[in-house]
Amino acid sequence: MTDVDLFFLARSVHVLAVVIWIGGVAFITTVLLPALKKLASSEQRIKLFEQLEHTFSWQAKLTTLATGISGYYMLDFFNAWHRYLDINFWWLHLMTLVWFIFTLVLFVLEPLFLHRWFLQQAKIDSDKTFATIQRMHNVLLTLSLIAVFCAVAGAHGYF
Ligand code: HEM
Hints:
This protein is mainly α and 159 residues long.
C-alpha cells in the first residue's frame, strides 16, 4: 500500500467514524431522550437509559479514537500542523474542539464522576436530571453538526 492509498483510507475511515459517532449522538438526542422523557416510571427510565447509553458509549469511544487517529494521519500526511496557527483553518480548530470535548467526557469525566453524579441526581429528581442531560446533548449535537458542515466545506476549499 502506498502513502497515497493510506491517505485515502484515512479520509474514508475519518468520515465513516464521524457518521457512526455523530449519527449516534443525533439518535440519542432527538429520538431516545425525548422517548424516555415520556416514560412515567423514573426507575424504568434510568434503567433503559443506562443500558442503551452503555452500549453506545463503546461505539462512541471506538469511533472517537478512529476519528482522532485518521485526522492525525491526514494532518501528518499533508505536513499541515501549521494550520493550527492559522485562523483561516478555524474549521480544523472546531473539529478538534468537538473531538476534545467528547474525548474528555467519554474517557475522563464519565468514568471519574459524571456517571455516578447522573445516578445520584436521577434518584433525587429524575425530570430535572433528564432535562439537564437533554440540554447538554442539544449543545453537543449542534456543535458537532456545525463542525461536520464546516469541515466538508473547508476540506473542499470553500473557506
Ligand atoms: C483530533 C481531531 C481531528 C483532526 C486532527 C481532524 C483532521 C482532519 C483533516 C486533516 C481533514 C482533511 C482536511 C483537508 O482535506 O484539508 C479532516 C476532514 C474532515 N473532518 Fe476531521 N479531524 C478531527 C476531528 C473531526 C471531528 C470531531 C469531526 C466531526 C464532527 C470531523 C469531521 C471531518 C469531516 C466531515 C471532514 C471532511 C471530509 C471530506 O469531505 O473529505 N473531524 N479532518
